Amino acid sequence: MTAQNEPAEKRPDIDAASGAGAADGQQDLLATLRAELEAAQAKAAEHYDQLLRTRADAENIRRRAQDDVAKAHKFGIESFAESLVPVKDSLEAALAQQDQTVQFLREGVEATLKQLASAFERNKLLEIAPAAGEKFDPHQHQAISSVPSDQPANTVVQTLQKGYLIVDRVLRPALVVVSAGQQD
Q1: Can you tell me which residues the record assigns to a coiled coil (predicted)?
Q2: Phi/psi of residue 6, each to 5°?
Q3: Does pTM top 0.70 for this prediction?
Q4: How many CB atoms lie within 10 A of CB 95?
Q5: How confident is the model over 8-61, as pLDDT tens digits?
Q6: N or C: which end of the chain has fewer CB within 10 A?
Q7: Angle of CA points 85, 87, 92, to nearest 5°
C-alpha cells in the first residue's frame, strides 16, 4: 500500500498538518465564543442595571402617589374651610354686638347667608330644590310621602328640605312630597 492509499489517521504528514489547522481553528472558535460570551454578559449586566433602575423608579412613583393621596385626604377640604372662615367671623361679630335692632340683625344674617352661598358656589356645593310640578328624580330626591293632587303622578308637590350636590354627587337628597296623581 502506498502512502496515498493509507487512511489519514495513519499518515503522519497529514496528521501534523491537519492537527495544526484544527488547533488553530479551535483556538479561533474558542476566541470567538469567549468574545460572544463577554458581549452577552455585558449586555445582560446592562439589562439587569436597567431593570434595577426601572424598579427603583416605579417604587419612587408609587411612594409619591401614596404621599399625594395622603395629602389630598388630609388637606382636601382646605379650600372649603377657607371659604367658611369669613362666615364664622361674621356670625361671631353679630353675636358680639350688644344692642342691635331686629332690622340690623336681619341685614347681618342676610349678608352672612350670602357669604355662605358664595362659599358653597366656589366649592361646587349646589342646592337641590325642586319646584312644585318638577318630575320626581329618585337619584336626587327622597319622597317622604305621596298625596293625591291635581298634578301628574310622580311630580314634586312640595319640597320639605333642600338637598345638596357636590359637583355631580348627591351629598343629601332633597326631601319632597310627591303627587300620587288625581283621585276620582
Answers
A1: 23-68
A2: -70, 150
A3: no
A4: 10
A5: 455 555 455 555 667 788 999 999 999 999 999 999 999 999 999 999 999 999
A6: C
A7: 95
